[in-house]
Write a structure and sequence with these properties.
There is one protein chain. α2 runs antiparallel to α3 and α4 packs across α5 (97-118). This protein is mainly α. The protein is 67% helix and 0% strand. It is built from 19 helices and no strands.
């Protein structure tokens, strides 16, 4: 599936249950143990709270302990069962916003666990993503659903569970983008760009690029419920990938209109070092900005990854047109020909002729 590397994130927070008076003492003890990083004792308290009086909150927090191995052994099977129990919960007030948040979060987490266990999203996982969307308007689920509707290798489409549709994907991306989901903003921008709506695409990418990644540890005291709804976890690889894609799209866009300072600003924010597209825009901007060694090193890294001789060609052209080093350009072109790239024959002929003319 397209760029889909997902981490199932543990949800650990200070408990704030008020309905189960019998658990109040245990809740305080749990919060204290977690604050002191006594995770083994914290796990024992949350397990006792869960066993004493089931609640969505205690189930979700307990699942987080099993996912992260926090005070206990990692146990994805038990975590999945806990999430499914909350996701399937029917005995709650559907007008209760907090309950809805837990059910939506658990539905999304269960769907992602199924995906990681089975290797792809199947009909059951898709059902729980849709539930997360309908119950709590979950932004990350909406983003994933959008990806599923545009992914041409999607097994759900192959099995007729859904019909590939850019329009449906766009609708889900829009809903998610309204809540500043970085992935949805990036993908929505790509769709707008493909439709010729350049301004709308740039607007989406700039919003994605300027949205801060969410570190849940910073909100454990002030806003624990933000963990249920924020779609931009700093520890989620897919979100980081999507934000880097937004940086790249902005860098290319500004480079195309010869605004090299803005292009460089966004290219410098790219943190991924193994994508040849990202390396190529960085190398070209390094060359334009006079950072010769950085440009050379980046082009060579790009070639190392791609084994595409055209990359060497771009390096040779930079030597010839920017750094005025005809000898090095010729050496690189000849090396390309040795590697079987006959497209350089004309370039070699031009350089040879220039050399002869300059020698007159």
């Amino acid at each position: 599936m397209k760029k889909l590397y997902l981490i199932i994130l543990p949800f650990i927070c200070f408990l704030c249950e008020t309905h189960a008076q019998i658990n109040q003492d245990l809740i305080l003890k749990y919060d204290s143990a977690m604050a002191q990083k006594d995770y083994n004792q914290g796990f024992r308290y949350i397990l006792e709270i869960y066993n004493n009086s089931f609640s969505f909150e205690s189930a979700v927090v307990l699942a987080g302990h099993f996912i992260g191995g926090i005070g206990t052994d990692v146990d994805f099977k038990t975590a999945a069962q806990l999430y499914k129990g909350v996701a399937d919960g029917t005995e709650y007030d559907r007008n209760n916003t907090i309950a809805n948040l837990y059910v939506g979060f658990a539905s999304r987490q269960y769907a992602l666990m199924l995906k990681n266990i089975k290797g792809s999203f199947d009909k059951e996982a898709f059902k729980y993503l849709l539930k997360a969307d309908s119950v709590s308007n979950d932004a990350f689920s909406q983003f994933i659903i959008g990806l599923l509707y545009i992914d041409e290798y999607n097994e759900l489409a192959a099995s007729d569970v859904l019909i590939r549709s850019k329009d449906i994907a766009k609708a889900f991306f829009k809903k998610s983008a309204e809540k500043n989901c970085i992935g949805a903003l990036t993908e929505l921008g790509i769709i707008y760009d493909s439709e010729g709506e350049k301004d709308a695409a740039f607007d989406c990418w700039q919003k994605a690029a300027n949205t801060s990644l969410y570190n849940p540890e910073e909100y454990i005291h002030s806003d624990p419920f933000s963990r249920l709804v924020n779609p931009n976890y700093i520890t989620e690889p897919l979100t980081v990938l999507e934000q880097n894609e937004a940086f790249y799209r902005l860098a290319v866009g500004f480079s195309d209109i010869e605004n090299d300072s803005r292009a460089t600003f966004w290219a410098d924010k790219i943190t991924i070092t193994n994508d040849t597209r990202y390396l190529d825009i960085k190398a070209s901007l390094y060359a334009v900005n006079g950072e010769k060694q950085k440009a050379i090193d980046t082009y060579l890294r790009e070639y190392e990854l791609s084994k595409d001789t055209k990359v060497l060609g771009r390096l040779a052209i930079a030597h010839y047109t920017i750094w005025h080093d005809e000898a090095e350009a010729m050496r690189i072109f000849e090396r390309m020909r040795e590697l079987g790239d006959t497209s350089v024959d004309n370039a070699i002929k031009v350089l040879t002729q220039d050399k002869q003319n300059n020698g007159k």
